[in-house]
Amino acid sequence: MSEQKYAVLPRGISQQEFQKAIEEFQKLLGDENVLTKPEQLVPYTKIMMPVADSEHAPSAALVATTVEQVQGIVRICNKYKIPIWTISTGRNFGYGSAAPQHRGQVILDLKRMNKIIHVDPDLCTALVEPGVTYGQLYDYLQKNNLPLMLSFSAPSVIAGPVGNTMDRGVGYTPYGEHFMMQCGMELVLANGEILRTGMGSVKNENSWQVFKWGYGPTLDGMFTQSNYGICTKMGFWLMPRPPVIKPFEIRYENESDITDIVELLRPLRIAQIIPNSVVIANILWEAGSANVRRSEYVTGGGATPDSVLRQIQRDKNLGAWNVYAALYGTQEQVDVNWKIVTETIKKSGKGKIITQEEAGNTQPFKYRAELMSGIPNLQEFGLYNWRGGGGSMWFAPVSQARGSECDRQKTLAKKILNKYGLDYVGEFIVGWRDMHHVIDVLYDRTSKEETESAYRCFHELINEFEKEGYAVYRVNTAFMERVAQSYGPVKRRVEHAIKRALDPNNILAPGKSGIDLDTFKE
Amino acid sequence: MFFLKENWAGKRIFMTSITLSTIWLVLFVYMIEEAVGKDIGNSDQWSGGRNVYDTICQHCHETGVGPVIKGRQLPVEYITHVVRHGFRAMPAFPEPYISNEDLKSLGQYIQQTTSEKK
Ligand SMILES: Cc1cc2nc3c(=O)[nH]c(=O)nc-3n(C[C@H](O)[C@H](O)[C@H](O)COP(=O)(O)OP(=O)(O)OC[C@H]3O[C@@H](n4cnc5c(N)ncnc54)[C@H](O)[C@@H]3O)c2cc1C
């Protein structure tokens, strides 16, 4: 063996030690499931963040197919102090993709652990392994004619429920707050023990997927967006597919309409008249996901002028804001709610309603309607055609579902983005009382200048929003430490105390959400 | 009583409520039997390159999101490279996602396709 066999090593680990660990991994998993060659690792280094790929390059990737193998992996990791970064389907685009939080971590890839273990059509529950994709689950429901419906993130075809829920992602149906619909987890802990949350630890139980809380402290939340365990099974609830789904759009002409839109929608959403995670997408989100390219309108870099945005609005028949919502139920139920919705909008004096019959197969209505109906697609990737160059980070501050707050956040974000020559491409995803204000910080990653601007811009977005009392709900791996600071020192101390108790060797995903025993200073 | 059941895939099914409840009953018995078994769905391996294309690639490459790749006689090596490295906004797919064998089959499938006249 040459001295420099591995181009990338875990932090503080020598070539020799790493070689020994790799040999043990090979013995456990078979040579073919221990990926160390550059051509095998290159897919894991594809990121969209404005930092060098090398900062997030893994040293190896391990492919496990059983819970016992995952237990074996943590045993070896403890022995050699090897940090592992777990992915389920690894499609965390704009949040770090499949790459580890920092250079040298070993990827634990659970994509091949992809069994749909259980779907109960009476109780409307599912239990799956981490590698299951939404696409796979959708095909399964279709093939077996199960009258159940999925809620998923927009990259639905290729992403999966376990990874998305572990990162507390969102979807667009009435079950769109995915962690709220999660019920029961199986986790391999850093010491190799297996924990089942909720009712899952009771001998001979059969209520693991129906009762979330179990007894005593409810632990599930602690394992999401964290690094305290490796999820090897997850239960969640599925919505019964209703006889009627009625998707619709409300189109608004002016950017300043956001205040009125939110005030109009909030009561309908909280009262569940509109039950799904409604989306309010701005003109550029709308144009991008309908495959409109910036180069059709402007040449050169910089922020796109408002006059051009208005032109696009006219040319493509889009709104400055575009609300997507749906009604679900029997025809009678939908009719009643439709009457309430249409009368409310009419009374407000603005907003044009577009029904599915009127929209036909046009984008972006079609893909939005599909997302709200549990039908997977990848149309939202069209956003990346707007500027080109494959650079993207989600800036996702939480806002109250209050018109004035949404307007304030939009205005602040747009000002900062434009200052750095970037566009405001944003949407509000309406929770019950909150808004996930999701902004796609799009930039051309092939341009050094734009990449550097995007990096500085993201910092400023976090800083300026923090000053106003706003923080993001989730962030890409390059900014995890910075965002953890926004949530204050006490929370961080508690998180690290838990980490020390559960994973004293710091082997599970150090750096996730800023939790890292090696770098954290009290 | 008649009502219209609108299936999102575009099919329209008219049913009487009596027929409907019978179907539900049969369906439920069948589904319960299906669901109690372990490991009920596992699509570990793709069934060839065409299956990978239809399940994943076409969602972008036939919708205007990504470029058309069928009918251009793209070399297998090129397709393999792009799938493993990604390209700009196109994600990279590691081996556990699409095995080397399936990737080769995918490349061959795409290469031999002829352009579809619309
Ligand atoms: C165009 C576009 C649209 C998007 N729209 C949405 C959207 O609507 N909603 C949304 O939520 N996101 C969205 N995303 C972001 C992202 O792509 C999705 O959230 C996606 O579902 C996450 O990838 P995944 O499901 O493969 O999870 P993974 O990448 O497998 O997992 C995500 C993270 O969770 C942790 N994790 C994963 N598995 C485990 C495990 N077994 N044990 C412990 N920790 C684990 C890891 O930290 C991992 O990095 C979008 C991205 C793009 C490009």
How would you describe the overall organization of this protein?
The complex is a heterodimer of chains A (522) and B (118). With 522 residues, chain A is α+β, with helices and mostly antiparallel strands. Chain A has 4 domains: 15-109, Uridine Diphospho-n-acetylenolpyruvylglucosamine Reductase, domain 2; 116-240, Uridine Diphospho-n-acetylenolpyruvylglucosamine Reductase, domain 3 (2-Layer Sandwich); 244-476, FAD-linked oxidases, C-terminal domain (Vanillyl-alcohol Oxidase, Chain A, domain 3, 3-Layer(aba) Sandwich), CATH 3.40.462; 487-514, no CATH class. Chain A has 16 helices and 19 strands. In chain A, strands 12, 13, 14, 15, 16, 17, 18 and 19 form an 8-stranded antiparallel sheet that branches. A 5-stranded antiparallel sheet of chain A has the order 5-6-10-8-9. In chain A, strand 8 (182-189) and strand 9 (194-196) form a beta hairpin. In chain A, helix 1 runs antiparallel to helix 3 (67-80) and helix 6 (258-270) crosses helix 13. Chain A is globular, with a radius of gyration of 23 Å. Chain B is mainly alpha-helical. Chain B has 4 helices and 3 strands, in the order E-E-H-E-H-H-H. In chain B, strand 1 (2-6) and strand 2 form a beta hairpin. Classes of the chains: A alpha+beta (522), B mainly alpha (118). At the A-B interface, strand 5 and helix 4 of A face strand 1, helix 1, strand 3 and helix 2 of B. Strand 5 of chain A pairs antiparallel with strand 3 of chain B. The structure holds flavin-adenine dinucleotide. The site of flavin-adenine dinucleotide has 32 residues of chain A, from strand 3, helix 5 and strand 10.
